[in-house]
Every structure is written in structure tokens, then in C-alpha cells.
């Protein structure tokens, strides 16, 4: 029965350790993220072009073909110039934090739903993070993306471990009512 929770727990532990390593090497994580994203765009573009030819008589051939070409071109640009791609992705990240925080903060103030204060605080933090990243350009390109990716990997690993422990607790309660 430990296979139901033990395997996921070990996987969560390994992902947590990977997150810690990623946070310890944010510059490497940032560059690796750009290379990974560029590679995934190229692969997705190839699949989209293949799909375009599979549906050429029954579907929107041109939309899939042009979407695939665009994915390949953008992915190739990221792979050929990862430094420029890192700057672009960092600016995109800063803009996302700023806009998301602004929208969340304004919405929470206007709606005043239960727990709105937490969303308002999140909005403020997000706006400050977006402004901080953009005002520290180009230095923030070295740490911002890697930090966000590292925190995401770390929190995902912790979440998987917590889920595995919850399964273990439920199994113990079922075994010993």
C-alpha cells in the first residue's frame, strides 16, 4: 500500500530538491528556461504544421500552418539568441505581474467580497514585483525568470509531498477506523 503514497512522495521530494537547486542557480535556471521554452515552441510548431496537413481538406489548414511556422520562428529566435529572449521574457513577466496585480487589486477594492483584503495585498505585492523587475532591467534578466521558475518548482514539489502524505493519512484512517 505504500506504493500509493510512497512513489509520489519521493517524486515530490526530488522535485523539491530540484527547486532548491534552481533557486541556488537562478542565472542558469533563467537561461535554461529560455532554451527549454524555445525548444518547446519549435516542437509545438512542427506538430502544428503536421496537424495542418492532416486537416487540410476538413479544417482550417492555413491557420494551423501559419501558427506552426510562427511557433518555429519564435522558438528558433529564442534558441539562437537566448540573451535577447531572456530580456523579452523578463519584460513579459514584469508586465504580467504589474497588470495582474493591478487588475486583482482594483477588482478586490470594487467588489469587496469575503477575503478581499488578501487579494488586495496580493495585488500590491504583484504590482511592486512588476515595477521592481522592470526598473532593475537589465540586471533583473539574470534573476527574475530563474527565481519565478525555481519557486514554482519548489512549491510544486512541496505540494506533491503534501498530497502524498494526505493519501497516507487517509489510508491509515481506513486501515484503523
Automatic annotation (TrEMBL):
Pfam families from the UniProt entry: DUF308
One GO CC term on file: plasma membrane
Transmembrane segments: 7-28, 34-53, 60-79, 85-103, 115-135, 141-167
Keyword Membrane set for record: yes
Record bears the keyword Zinc-finger: no
Alphabetical UniProt keywords: Membrane, Transmembrane, Transmembrane helix
Protein name: HdeD protein
Species for this entry: Cystobacter fuscus (strain ATCC 25194 / DSM 2262 / NBRC 100088 / M29)
Lineage: Bacteria, Pseudomonadati, Myxococcota, Myxococcia, Myxococcales
